[in-house]
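Q: Could you fold this chain for me?
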Amino acid sequence: MSSELSEALAATLAEMRETVDALVATLGEEHQALEHADTPALDRAGATKLIQMRKLDRLDAERVQLSNAAPQAADRLKPAWTQVLQSLEKCRLHNQRNGGLVNQRLAQVRRALSALTGERDEPVYDPAGLLHSPQRSQPLAQA
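A: Sure. Below is the predicted structure, expressed as structure tokens.
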């Protein structure tokens, strides 16, 4: 029974590693889509990323269960788990990079809207200390 659990844990870790590697590739595709403003590619990458994250959640629950059932096997397979964690850190860094690119594009759009409307983009405080965000309900043009 213990060898079966050990084999199952090794297989789960291998599948996690494959899924994390695929996630790294998907994050790279997402980055390219963001750089090229390719909305269909961005949608595909987002959908793929969601599937991969759900799979990783399922596999991690399986890993925890198997590790608790076979702690000696978990100790032996610690290097494989460390590799998965290192790859997950790579994913986190790629995701942060992509998030930074999204924030940069959002700031550009806000600046463009501010230039078109003539309004400041930043919220301001009134004399009573209440925060007010600029309203963009004015028409940009008339026919």
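A (continued): The first helix runs from residue 2 to 35.
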